[in-house]
Amino acid sequence: KQKRQDKWLFTLAGHRWFCIAGIWRESPVGGAFTMLTIEPREDGALVGMSGLRRPVTPLAPESIRGAFEIGWRLSESMWGQGYAREAAEAGLSHAFALGADRVVALTSISNRPSWGLMERLGMRRYADLDFDDPDFPPHLNPTIVYIKERPTWTA
User: Fold this and answer.
1) Could you tell me if 13 and 30 are in contact, meaning their C-beta atoms sit under 8 angstroms apart?
2) Which of 1, 36, 78, 148 has the smallest number of Cβ neighbours within 10 A?
3) What is the structure's pLDDT at 147?
4) Could you write out the DSSP letters of every residue in 97-155?
5) Share of the chain above pLDDT 90, in %
6) Integer angstrom CA distances of residue 54 from 43, 47, 60, 100
7) Is the model's pLDDT at 15 over the cut of 80?
């Protein structure tokens, strides 16, 4: 088996996961994005992804369009082990290093684990910005909005 060479988007010393892809680029459909794979160093299995993008949902409130949006998705077997938090913290650091004044996170009202993590990251809920997203079925609406402001971030 060929050994992969580390390609770090930002310093991740001490993290338990390995980024095999991660570059900030402009999207051909507008906005910009980066997605990172999450692979435990122990076995290299793909267990999830995390990344930054610009919100592109047409019904997202105007006040969050153009901001950085952070998101993550992990295999259910990996929930509760800290991988999403580590990835989210690295993503927040990167967004603020790129000059973001704030970072938004969007999730379904029914996705308690995700909005729980948003709260543990010190993100604040803005219920007045919640919206119904027609791309998701009614039981996954509304989409709720959390925001992390630069002054509240400590790397």
Assistant:
1) no
2) 1
3) 97
4) HTT-SEEEEEEETT-HHHHHHHHHTT-EE-GGG-B--TTS-GGG-SEEEEEEEGGG---
5) 32
6) 32, 24, 11, 11
7) no
31: left (phi over 0), alpha (psi -120 to 50) or beta: left
User: 145, 125 in Cβ contact below 8 A?
Assistant: yes
Distance separating alpha carbons of residues 126 and 145, to the nearest angstrom: 6
3-state class (DSSP) for residue 25 = strand
- Model's pTM, two decimal places? 0.79
The closest of 65, 112, 115 to 88, measured between CA atoms, is 115
CA–CA distance, 8 with 146 (Å, rounded to integer): 27
Which structure tokens are listed for 92?
């927040």
At 72, the amino acid letter reads: W
Closest CA to 12 of 36, 46, 44: 36
Q: CA–CA separation, 78 vs 48, rounded Å?
A: 9
- Compute CA distances 124 → 17, 20, 50, 79, 88, whole Å: 27, 31, 20, 22, 15
